[in-house]
């Protein structure tokens, strides 16, 4: 950081890290900055890392005009890189406004200022942020910027674009983007078409996906992978009637069902409670010499556990290794999930120890520790699980953080809530709508209406749309509060 800039911002940093110093600047007497003397033995704090500094700069200026924020950014003097820009954007994943201001400034800063040119990784992040927050007008401007730059549109960015448009149920726009691929130097091929079909199905537009799929059979000849996408879509919707129809169409086509086709259909049967049919298909595969893979075995194990047929699930688990199908972390997680539900905790920790011993694909992951955390009874047990998680090299993610946040709220451990909230922000896990919803509902449940309203306003100010149940609950609490006030006055 340039020396002159450090001199200019040292008092801002003192205010940030030593709030008591701020009172000096609020005195009615006018004085020059150089006339203020430092406290005895006071040393200027070391400048924070660039990512943290930029995060704070954007945080405390989020409501300022963009031009003012850009002027402050111009004074920073940091050497821009993809890693720096990406990390700053990531820390604002649920707050699109400062993210966009910073992104636009980074684009302007290149290449005449320091040679930095944003890569596809940076463009993908801002596309994801704007799409997630449904800021499609701003996203269209970014897309227009991308069309003037070579090499920034790749398959990852394309998939993110399709995902966010379909996620907002803008089906026609998503199909339009698919046909704009050539503008960005990408081919219109079967793989890209499957990406479009996948996101359409993922967001429950399966009928649109199948209609589009069948209309393009001459232009893009179907393969089993494309059939599988549509079959999976109907199965995810739980529409076994349409799934059976498509299964028959696959058998009648020139495409031969693969393991994924069987896995999809077996899973659909188990989800509809047709475990007998699924088991017949499963055992039939062994008999026909078509060895099920670990995905299919996991589906059967999970279904048996769900039906509380745990001994049979453990038998399948045992037979997997004997027949050359090695279990993975998902196999263990299915057993652990259901063992936690029936409180067989000794068996749970035996399985976890076995996972740690096997390592590789069996090493416990965030899902494993989430089940363990969900089985806890009191706050003091949380650090034990988190320490074990860290010891095994499993990183925290937003799901685990939000789970811990919810547990502390349920236990009404406000110190735990505060620590978790601060750690999430400090470690760059953007506080999303789930985080705010957990706190709002928790505070309302405990009768802390003012705290709930404070977090609600903060969430809305960041452009997050509250869940309908949150608005209903707040409205109900406000009505009750007004009635109590009127009774007290009466």
UniProtKB/TrEMBL annotation:
PPR repeats lie at residues 223-257, 258-292, 293-327, 328-358, 432-466. PROSITE patterns: PPR. Residues 481-490 have a biased composition (Basic and acidic residues). Residues 464-490 are annotated as: Disordered. The keyword Repeat applies. Pfam families: PPR_2. Keywords: Repeat. NCBIfam families: PPR. Belongs to the PPR family. P subfamily. This is Pentatricopeptide repeat-containing protein. It comes from Arachis hypogaea (Peanut).
